[in-house]
Amino acid sequence: MEIAVIRRPMRTLLAVTASAAVGLLAAGTASAGAQTVQPAGSTQRSAAATLTDAPSGVPGANAAPTISATSQLSERRFVAAGTDAYVVGVEDGTFPPIGWHTTGQMGGVFTPPVKLLDGLWFGLSGSWLDSATSYTSGPGFVRLTFPVTEGVQPTLTEFAPDGLSAVLFGLTLVPVNGSAATVAVTADAHSEVSATYPWSSTTPTWDQFNNQNTVSAAHGVIQFNQEQTPWYADVASATPPSSTATGSGYWGPTSATDQAAFGTKGEGGQLTWNLAVPAAGRTLWLGVAGSQNGPANASQALQAALANPVGLLQSKIAERDNVAGQTNVQVPDASVQQALLWSKLNLADLSRTIADAAIRDTQAGTVYPAPLATVPQLSAIDAAYPDYAEFFGTDGAYSSYGLAVSGQWQTAVNWLNAMRTVSQIVNGNTGKVVHEVTATGAVYYGDTTEPGDINETAQFAIAADLVWRWSGDNAVLADNYTFIDEGEHYLASLATGPGGLWPVGDGIVEDTSLGGEALDVASETIQALAALHDMAVAVHDASTARWAAQREQAMLAAFGQWWISSQHLYADSLCTSASDGTDCTAAGQQLQQRWWTSVAPMEQDIAPVPDADAALGQLETPTFTGSCGLYVDGVGGPSGTGGQTCYLVNTGALAVGEANYGRLPQAVTDMDEIASQLTVEMPGALPELAASAQYNPFEAFTSRANVMQAWSGYGLLWTVVNDLLGVSPDAPAGSVAVVPEIPPSWPAMSVQNLHVGTSTLGETASRQGTAYRTQVTGAQGLALTIGAVLAAGATVHSVTLNGAPVAYRLVTTHRGTAVEVSVPHPAATEVLAVQA
Length: 836
Known about the structure:
Helix content is 27%, strand content 28%. The longest helix is centred in the middle third of the chain and has 20 residues.
């Protein structure tokens, strides 16, 4: 495919006028004992000291950043993840039943698409390590510290090396009296070798699908296998054990009640050591490895993991250190600053690769047909741990914003490739994006016979355009153009309601009360058409460019159909007929049911400014927003009080919408609310849901929302980089605009090591009274637009570039009036100063 390098202006879309429980949770959060520990002079990077052990001998002891908790550890989940394996447990060192997708089976050790173990437990001289006093999340690992036991200080380090189907556990023992000791160490492992799909509620069920496990021990390796399958799990140490044992038990400290909840399909094994521990301490490494393709692969992964655990940990820390150092943002808000950093690390922890994915259409879990195809390898970003460790259309699309601005482009490209590949297998050349791809390759939902989640087809186009603009990788365009073109024509074919403009089908909200035309689908389709237009121009497809532009403009011209002037809000759905949704009485009826998707036109930056200001003002009221953020369904909506829960992505969308329209104090408030959840359960992980009167983050492990969610950082990274720092690249065209808008409460902010195409930029933006300053470094080779968004009502008195007066233009944007200066051939450093 021939691709033309074109220079496009930054996109300007047409717009036409048209309780007590909370207190208890807050108190619990405040007493969590969470804290960050950073090396001096850095808030983003680990520095070289990361790769050496502290005198205590604890692996990675000097790594940074770290964030810790010391209270409620028995109620907090954690995850330590790599691309091919992960472990989910509880921060006190236990492994109770966790998760609801497959009830109780979402914790333990996994090498997707196979679960390996329900848990792994260590004991010293008969005392189980199940009451940690401190838990720490680090860059790529977790660490649990236990009380002094049998005269030694135990610390457990857990991590999953990227690229290996294995998890490593390092038990460090340090004598507290400074003298060498011999310690009796026990490790119990109990298997649950099983497929991660089917689930408890599907046909067949998890229990019907999976078989009994078997166990054996030889040469110090305990091996588990599910009967009649090539699924294996190996457990061993590089330090030969004194003894091994196998049987139906070996559950460590797990209670009989929890054992019964796990069921009887698993088997157990035990390794013991009489470990000589020198005065300086010693680390015993134990590995758990698995395979879906026979025992040889599991054995190879285990050997590779145990060959050099310290070296693998050093590499893991270095990899995460690199992620932390990219898009190194500095803002004068400690909570947001910390959450920005960890949101990047969360995205890295959710990067996933699965092998031999058997693609089958399960039609929402009602059937289990033969595979349509088997894909040798799929890589993408998982949605969340523990229950959504799989690929989604919407989750991946929202995650692509953070991936794009943080330089994690390959993960975003992988997601695009995976979703396109699977969607084409299931839906042919329709262009419809499937909703949910499990780790086995089974597609739960999203074929063309299923009417919902059509927003994901539009979001795919937006995400591809985003990644293309930031990376400048024309392979993104070449690989996805035809699929996106088909998808936008598919959405057009669904526009069967009055007027023939708005696609009919559920968006991200799936509720029978909604009308057939959803506001988020309409808003995102407009942006997707703009993306298709630009891609069509780049590949010289004039007819598609013309079609996309005409359809985009027609939808924008008619967008007033959604506006309800009496409520100062957009309808969250339109009825296509009287029988459309349970609340519909006539075709064309506007429904405003308080759904969070009411923010979509502002989030997508397509609303006229007067309507946007009015609607955002309404969304800030207690009807829509509470102390946890933007409600899923506001007060008076069809969900009742149960709708007053807050997904972090909802509040993130509100932050984006506020910032798109220059409402920065409100955007900062929203970002602070998101950031406040970083230490509620797993320190350093942004969860799915915010704590609220309707959601207790410490409810039963088998009913909780996810502890780490990829899309939860959307409203942080994207809002700060795109809106506040004002970075808008068009790397394929060799240009970038840097036009910041500084919040009143943040007088200065900066970003370094920001990747745009092959360039690495830095930006420092500040505002002191009526003086604005924007400095950009590293833009050589790009056509630079440098500027600043002025406070409302400001009048420009002078504009200089590098100290000399310069010609400028005033540009009216949704954020406000911007001073902009074109710099066709920028120097290494360009400094714009505006005096208003």
